[in-house]
Write a structure and sequence with these properties.
Strands 2-3-1-4-5 form a 5-stranded parallel β-sheet, sandwiched between helices. Helix 2 packs across helix 5. By secondary structure, it is of the alpha/beta class. The chain contains 9 helices and 5 strands, in the order βαβααααββαααβα. It has 2 domains: about 120 residues, 3-Layer(aba) Sandwich (Rossmann fold), CATH 3.40.50.300; about 70 residues, no CATH class.
Length: about 200
């Protein structure tokens, strides 16, 4: 089964696009969802993060306080790298297990990896799609969705590749700008799905 990676900056609409592919009958795996799952208490990754960062990254229930952890890693590149070295291998291994468990009938599986290029995972995929939106729209969407301030969103964006860098390294691009209609987004996904099935 071919592996198609879906990436893009924060707030570009990757989940929305992935949902449209799923509606076409494409199996979809989400690296962020797997990360959240593996960071729950009882998982090895949760224990490893607490061991490295200390109990200050836990909330009162013993779950990871994502805001506290985010504050630590986005202000210290060394800490961000340490977190990535814990998270990426665990998520990658789980993705491999779940891909192996998929039925062989679909022509391809879509794997959503926000930091696909930043993590150096492009070699894992046969085809890569990037979702693009203008920075102002990304900031608006994330503020609306998560309640984060523009400065917080810009700090995240500063750690990610620029749209031009992603565009240069991806095989295809889906536009999800403020002017993109639902019908146009659906058309883009349908056209790409047809192309991928025909490859």
């Amino acid at each position: 089964m071919r592996r198609v990676g879906l990436t893009g900056g924060i707030g570009c609409g990757k989940s929305l696009v992935a949902g449209l592919f799923a509606a076409q009958g494409v199996p979809v795996l989400d690296a962020d969802a797997i990360t959240r799952e593996l960071q729950e208490p009882g998982h090895e990754l949760h224990a490893a993060i607490v061991s490295h960062f200390g109990p200050g990254v836990l909330d009162a229930r013993g779950h990871l306080d994502r805001g506290a952890l985010r504050a630590r890693v986005f202000t210290d590149p060394t800490e961000r790298e340490a977190l990535e070295q814990l998270v990426h291998p665990a998520v990658r291994a789980t993705l491999e297990t779940r891909l192996a468990a998929l039925p062989e009938s679909p022509p391809y599986a879509l794997i959503v990896v926000p930091l696909l290029f930043e993590a150096g995972w492009e070699g894992d995929f046969d085809y890569i799609i990037t979702v693009h939106s203008e920075p102002e729209e990304q900031i608006r969407r994330v503020g609306q969705r998560d309640g984060r301030s523009p400065a917080e969103v810009q700090a995240v964006m500063a750690t990610q590749l620029t749209p031009d860098e992603r565009r240069a390294r991806a095989d295809a691009e889906i536009l999800n700008t403020r002017d993109t209609s639902e019908a146009d987004l659906h058309r883009q996904v349908t056209e790409l799905d047809h192309r991928l099935r025909g490859m």
